[in-house]
Write a structure and sequence with these properties.
The protein is mainly α and about 70 residues long. The protein has helices at about 1-5, 15-40, 40-70.
Amino acid sequence: MWTRFARLFVIKTKFEAFLVIYGLGLGAVERGVHYLQQYPGYGGWMLFAACPIAVFMAGGRIIDSLEHGRDR
């Protein structure tokens, strides 16, 4: 029972990976907008830029892990 439930949270295809990355990107941009409201100016823009960059790094890692999983 728990194994079937746990399989719902495993990313198996690139389409699922892109959906997860899209969701992470939306959340990152939303957080960046909040940073711009809280910290107007240069500091807010730097925090805004850091949010999507983290998503780019995580997205690359997710896609690479899918490609390495097929080799095994």
